[in-house]
Amino acid sequence: MATPQLLSYASGTSELPLLGDTIGANLERTVAGFADRDALIDCPSGRRWTYAELDRDVDRVAHGLLAMGVDQGDRVGIWAPNCAEWVLVQYATAKIGAVLVNVNPAYRTHELSYVLTQAGVTVLVTAESFKTSDYVAMVEEVRGDCPALAHVVVIGTTSWDELVSGGEAVDEAALRERSGALSCDDPINIQYTSGTTGFPKGATLSHHNILNNGYFVAGVCGFTEEDTVVLPVPFYHCFGMVMGNLGATSHGATIVIPAPGFDPAATLAAVQETGATALYGVPTMFIAELALADFPTYDLSTLRTGIMAGSPCPVEVMKRVVAEMHMAEVTIAYGMTETSPVSTQTRRDDDLERRVSTVGSVHPHVEVKVVDPVTRVTLPRGEAGELCTRGYSVMVGYWDEPEKTADVLDRAGWMHTGDLATMDGDGYLNIVGRIKDLVIRGGENVYPREIEEFLYSHPDIADVQVVGVPDAKYGEELCAWIRMREGAEPLDAAAVRAFCEGKLAHYKVPRYVQVVDDFPMTVTGKIRKVEMRERSVELLGLQSVAAERHA
Known about the structure:
The chain is of the alpha/beta class. It has 17 helices and 28 strands.
């Protein structure tokens, strides 16, 4: 009798139970245990809070929102780069049961108006400006189109001071009563996904979703009250506010804000100045830090762990992070906004090969499987298919969009990620691409990730992304976008083909090469491959015969 094939399914066990707290109650539990320990350090302003001080200031903002008339379930938007006030608003809204709506700092008026209206935001907390964006002017431009918007609070101005002082008239018992009426299953956060076509969708997440995910992500990193984590990743995204902020506060660790937006020098300076033990970032952030001319002068010897996530992690970059940034226990995490976000993560004791070539194994209390994208049947291990995940971390749904929710969340509770993955015999997963990124050249399935990893090994290539472009003969061909190392001579298509010869199958060798200074990205550091394809078609003068497949 033949031995049954092992299927690509795994469930995460844990000796630790899921937390049943609300976010506010969990913060207060941490405060009770670690009142005098550092909770938050804001490097740009020089301000710092112990846990007792953080809880006091969170309550002041919570009282202010209650004084404004914010009810349980009302939506409170925040539109700002990383700053201490972002953290205060995050925990204050959680304490009063308001739904925090994260607004992308890169949004312009069209996108801002859509999000404020779609979520029905009643109070917007905003920065005055960031980079070239005048937030106050943009809010005024769209305010007339947002009927629910009753209050706008501008950080660093009298309106912020009035928010805080206005809460002095609210009795402490009112906050206690509100907090006590909340359930951990209440929706508490809306995060808009960075859609590549059409308007973004508002992934709606509960206390239970994001508190537990932050707790277990940080737990896999070994966080305790002795840890300090530097967060250059944006708070508006789940990497910052969930894996970072909630991961830290649920363990009594310290949050460090190095700068309002990503600044590689400020990030490394923050590590050095605070003696940080952990550093988070997307791969492009680590690449930029390693590329600093004075990188060797920073003392990073206190670093122990951290997370690289958000997009596929190049093997060579990961090796340098381990070797040169002292992050011997760095982990790779995989997830998506709709799953709070993390579903898989490498472990601190995984060998280097596991930590540089996989996205780890299933997270505690989560299930994952790899299925045929058409039949949805679970595939044998080793076969590529769509990665699905199920468990406490799966979103409540897309805000006010049940049909779009049903497109990705099936009746059995499985979230269909749209990512192509393989699961090995030990349950470790490798992301081989997006279903929409898959290139079909002459009937051969080509996964851009494989070619990117190979080209990273070229000594003159700092970064590379591969996309499919239309071709009359083969349907699609490969185009490599390459960013050269400083001082290196640009490579042309012939040089790239020569480097690939004898090492990659002929159909995997890029036909086109574009040498660029940077890639089109979202504010969270994700590569916008749809835009890269469009620009490649334009630059190369190609007919968009394959455009429909990638729509």
